[in-house]
Write a structure and sequence with these properties.
This protein has about 350 residues and is an alpha/beta fold. About 30% of the residues lie in helices and about 15% in strands. It is built from 11 helices and 14 strands. It binds 1,4-dihydronicotinamide adenine dinucleotide. The site of 1,4-dihydronicotinamide adenine dinucleotide has 30 residues, from helix 4 and helix 6.
């Protein structure tokens, strides 16, 4: 089996080579992202393997099918970069529904702690032998209220972590998990109550039409003064301009972003020698109370192994049986994991 692997980074290769060799899969590793200009590189391959910032729009899907590529193997959980509606009936889309919810939830807490205890500032100061504490005052997480939007795999782990810190959790999910609400330290509430009652808000829902800019200017107006906003999910959940205005007006106390709406041309690459064209991102990064990491939350050894193992198993299983439980199906008007093994 021959697979064209797009947007390859050095940390992808070892695990994919290991699992690929075990199953006689030959990966051709391309550094370039998949898009309209690069899709012809998939010629002669059985499947393409892509990540979060590859572009799989109608034009790319049409060309892939013309080239005889039957399968699109996402090596991630999110699929907002794939036109699922258009893909249905043309190309099979497989994904890795979970690789390490712990990786993402732990990174979220790392960002929160770094931000509110000013670790990012202290690290730079002490490297310069500046041992002053002025301006480094933080606040206790114990006793604070965290609002968690999306209580799936990652949201649940983040809830556990927050409870370990003695925080109260206000949760919102389109499909609430009944067993989570204990009527005390974890309570499902309306979005409005969550925004009004939370000291910290963390996003763990997918990017959909419903959740696009779920944090916007009107929401920021409703929030508590000094609210801390955490986004390790998808960039477009937050209206970045509204966030910047919230920071400038001091309404938002801090923001930690692992994702950014316009990240696809920037994140995962070394742009240190370039002039950053995106004024909003540049201004956000310049703020003392904003921490940006470049879609790094997933990046642990455990997650990389799980991503490679599941992707290879998805491909092997699909090409053997024509079915895969991790196939995304658009049959009912929204994409979800295939339940009956007959996606076309
Ligand atoms: P999941 O599918 O287990 O959980 C998502 C939850 O969001 C579900 O409980 C679902 O009911 C809920 N949801 C769906 N629509 C909603 C809406 N309109 N409002 C509120 N909640 C809604 O997914 P998982 O594994 O927990 O991942 C969550 C998100 O994290 C992914 O969609 C992805 O965007 C992001 N992610 C980010 C990574 C990173 O490296 N920064 C890595 C992996 C995932």
């Amino acid at each position: 089996m021959k697979i064209a692997f797009f947007d390859t980074k050095p940390y992808d290769k070892p695990s994919f080579q290991k699992y690929g060799e075990e199953h006689n899969i030959k990966f051709k590793f391309y550094e370039t992202k998949l898009n309209e200009d690069t899709v012809d590189l998939a010629q002669g391959y059985d499947a393409v393997c892509v990540f979060v910032n590859d572009t799989v729009n109608a034009q790319v899907i049409d060309r892939l099918t013309e080239l005889g590529v039957k399968v699109l193997a996402l090596r991630c959980a999110g699929f907002n970069n794939v036109d699922m509606k258009y893909a249905f009936g043309k190309i099979h889309v497989l994904r890795v529904p979970a690789y390490s919810p712990y990786a993402v939830a732990e990174h979220t807490m790392a960002l929160l702690l770094a931000s509110i205890r000013r670790i990012h500032k202290a690290y730079i100061r002490s490297r310069d032998f500046n041992f002053s504490l002025a301006g480094l005052t933080g606040f206790d997480l114990h006793g604070k209220t965290v609002g968690i939007i999306g209580t799936g795999k990652i949201g649940k782990v983040f809830i556990d972590i927050c409870r370990g810190f003695g925080m109260k959790v206000l949760a919102f999910d389109k499909f609430p998990g009944k067993s989570l609400d204990n009527g005390d330290t974890v309570q499902y509430v309306s979005l409005d109550e969550l925004f009004k009652g939370s000291d910290i808000i963390s996003l763990h829902c997918p990017l959909t039409e419903d959740t696009y800019h779920i944090i916007d200017e009107a929401v920021i107006d409703k929030c508590k003064r000094g609210v801390v906003i955490l986004n390790t999910s998808r960039g477009a959940l937050v209206d970045a301009e509204a966030l910047l205005n919230g920071i400038k007006s001091r309404k938002v106390g801090a923001a930690c972003l692992d994702v950014y709406e316009e990240e696809s041309d920037l994140f995962f690459e070394d742009n240190s020698g370039h002039i950053l064209e995106d004024d909003i991102l540049a201004r956000l990064i310049s703020m003392p109370n904003v921490i940006v990491t470049s879609h790094q939350a997933f990046l642990t050894e455990e997650a990389l192994q799980n991503i490679a193992e599941t992707t290879v198993n998805n491909l092997v299983g699909f090409f053997k049986t024509g079915q895969c439980p991790n196939e995304l199906c658009y049959k009912k008007g929204t994409a979800e994991d295939c339940r009956d093994g007959k996606c076309f």
